[in-house]
Amino acid sequence: MSEALRISRVDITPVAFKDPALLNAVGVHEPYALRAVIEVTTDQGIAGLGETYADEGHLRRLRSAADALTGMDVHALGAMRRRIAELTGDDRGGDGHGLTGMITTSSTVDRVFSPFEVACLDIQGRAAGRPVSDLLGGAVRDEVPFSAYLFYKWAAHPGHEPDEWGPALDPYGIVAQARRMVERFGFGAIKLKGGVMPPEQEVEAVLELRRAFPGIPLRLDPNAAWTVETSLKVARRLEGVLEYLEDPTPGQEGMARVAREAPMPLATNMCVVAFDELPSAVRDDAVGVVLSDHHYWGGLHRSKLLAGICATFGMGLSMHSNSHLGISLAAMTHLAAATENLTYACDTHWPWKDPAEDVIVPGVLGFRAGAVAVPRSPGLGVELDRDALARLHEQYLRCGLRNRDDTGYMRRLDPSYEKKSPRW
Ligand code: GKR
Ligand code: MG
């Protein structure tokens, strides 16, 4: 029997990278997005990478998990998750911004476990000389299509220099943004983050996108900003235009009411975000498409479990994203490549990131015709750039942000702003 690969050390480094003033249903992105980089090293000196959120409570949980996992074999993934569950007890954690649904105890365990699982798979792959997609059953596609992810946005954060994308505050601004993004990355699907402007204006934006990009699949995601009635009005106006409507209204019950009459499938990353939320969603036909996200579904293997459940119950599968760096893009790409029923182009916030800011050595992950080629080298296929990690960590220390708080930032700029779901 071959030797165990035991975890001898775990490094957790919070980093911050610049983020434009992107608007959403709960406020506006702050000038920096926060992530944590996890580096797991074995006693043979093989290192693996993971990436996750960096809110303070999450960092605290990651640090106690790191201590508890030290000494374990990188193949003992089930035992690792169990150990994290024991540590977590009935701590529910929180996501601080309310855009990824209800946090339950089991989803807190999955959020904490995920970056360690990814790092251990990276190590397993490096040790075996195989890409992570092979460890997940093998790639069924050589490249993974992603969608353009459009946002209403300001030209700049107040007091900062304008970013290269310019403002997008009406349908024409959105179409202009789409043109630049599609031109630069070649995306073959488009998602608009809604819940920002009155629904009529967002409908107009989608209709303008349809005129500008005939034949490209379109999606609209207002993050539960609408009542059931508003959702149905929008759904009827956009019949034949949207491939899916994402989280129009809060809660599974509301979603089920919209789903009964809407002419297109409803998708979610808000009302089904953990395994214990699946039975009622299936029973009530609340959603047609689940957006997976390995960062909170408990890593890559458990995301494949989700994929199997979706296939069994006839639900479609897409992929959700938050602002992220290259380690996550690599993990998302391996997972999507090895998941047969992930048939929609995946979300990514990648275009919003300054290409000069990442923690991985550049050159492996690139977009061609809207898709990322699946790395074929061992593990995730990406290497840590230690100087860049140090720079982005320094930026984290300097920027002063410690938790994502889109609403708090908006309220500092506009004290009359209120967070409401539904708003319209
Ligand atoms: O980045 O503002 C954002 C998004 O709204 C994000 O936080 C959501 O979680 O992308 C997400 C979504 O699809 O709902
Ligand atoms: Mg969404």
Automatic annotation (TrEMBL):
<dbReference type="InterPro" id="IPR029017">
    <property type="entry name" value="Enolase-like_N"/>
</dbReference>
<dbReference type="InterPro" id="IPR034593">
    <property type="entry name" value="DgoD-like"/>
</dbReference>
<protein>
    <recommendedName>
        <fullName>glucarate dehydratase</fullName>
        <ecNumber>4.2.1.40</ecNumber>
    </recommendedName>
</protein>
<feature type="domain" description="Mandelate racemase/muconate lactonizing enzyme C-terminal">
    <location>
        <begin position="171"/>
        <end position="265"/>
    </location>
</feature>
<comment type="similarity">
    <text>Belongs to the mandelate racemase/muconate lactonizing enzyme family. GlucD subfamily.</text>
</comment>
<dbReference type="InterPro" id="IPR029065">
    <property type="entry name" value="Enolase_C-like"/>
</dbReference>
<keyword id="KW-0456">Lyase</keyword>
<dbReference type="InterPro" id="IPR013342">
    <property type="entry name" value="Mandelate_racemase_C"/>
</dbReference>
<comment type="pathway">
    <text>Carbohydrate acid metabolism; D-glucarate degradation; 2,5-dioxopentanoate from D-glucarate: step 1/2.</text>
</comment>
<dbReference type="InterPro" id="IPR036849">
    <property type="entry name" value="Enolase-like_C_sf"/>
</dbReference>
<dbReference type="InterPro" id="IPR034598">
    <property type="entry name" value="GlucD-like"/>
</dbReference>
<keyword id="KW-0479">Metal-binding</keyword>
<keyword id="KW-0460">Magnesium</keyword>
<dbReference type="Pfam" id="PF13378">
    <property type="entry name" value="MR_MLE_C"/>
</dbReference>
